[in-house]
Amino acid sequence: MGFKEINAEELQFNPFTKIGKEWMLITAGDEEKHNTMTASWGALGIMWGKNVATVYLRPQRYTKEFVDNGEKFTISFYGEEYRKALNICGSKSGRDCDKENEAGLTPYYTDGTTAFEEAEMIFVCRKLYSQPMGPEYFTEDWIDGKWYPQKDYHVMYMAAIEKVLVRE
């Protein structure tokens, strides 16, 4: 089984469920070296006339180094049978272990970046914009205290969705 490319406009899912409850992997890097992480914060929409995905990475995440150093990254989505794999990818660092092997994931190389063969859907994304988030921009005080007790503010990345691949 492989993947087929579809137009983003053909997608039919609830992004609040897909991202917030089912989670996703953000993966960056190439065949030589790559890393992945689980995320449950993100957004999909339109910006500058393009279909875009927005992801948020904390500065200490190893995957952030790969996103920063490359032009592209992938966002991929999985069935419930991969919940344990997503837990591993969200709780372990690729600096310390081979977490894709521990999670039972098989690299899938596409368009100069990496995803995984087990995915149900992959977005190949090209970075358009990034900006560090900070307390000076929060409009409500509770955000800083609740989500950033260690002051490790996310960096927001907005990326054009260049390709959508779905499992055949």
SSE diagram, text form:
Blueprint: E1 3-6, H1 15-20, E2 24-29, E3 34-39, E4 42-47, E5 50-57, H2 62-69, E6 72-77, H3 83-91, H4 99-103, E7 107-110, E8 113-116, E9 121-132, H5 141-147, E10 155-167
Explain what you see.
- The structure is a single chain.
- The chain is α+β, with helices and mostly antiparallel strands and 168 residues long.
- The chain has helices at 15-20, 62-69, 83-91, 99-103, 141-147; strands at 3-6, 24-29, 34-39, 42-47, 50-57, 72-77, 107-110, 113-116, 121-132, 155-167.
- Strands 1, 2, 3, 4, 5, 6, 9 and 10 form an eight-stranded antiparallel sheet that branches. A two-stranded antiparallel sheet has the order 7-8.
- A hairpin with a 2-residue loop joins β7 (107-110) and β8.
- The longest helix has 9 residues, at 83-91.
- It is globular and about 50 Å long.
- The N and C termini lie close together (6 Å).
- The model has no long low-confidence stretch (mean pLDDT 96).
Give the overall silhouette.
Answer: globular
Task: Note the total helix count.
Answer: 5
Distance between the termini: 6 Å
Number of domains: 1
Under CATH, the homologous superfamily reads Electron Transport, Fmn-binding Protein, Chain A
Q: Please give the number of β-strands.
A: 10
CATH class: Mainly Beta
CATH architecture: Roll
Rg, Cα atoms, Å:
15 Å
The amount of beta strand, in percent, is 35-45%
User: How many strands, which pairing sense, and closed or not: the largest β-sheet?
Assistant: 8 strands, antiparallel
Run of helices and strands: EHEEEEHEHHEEEHE
| Mean model confidence by pLDDT | 96
Q: Structural class of the secondary structure composition?
A: alpha+beta
Helix content percent band: 10-25%
CATH-defined fold name: Pnp Oxidase, Chain A
- Give the uncertain stretches in residue-range form: none
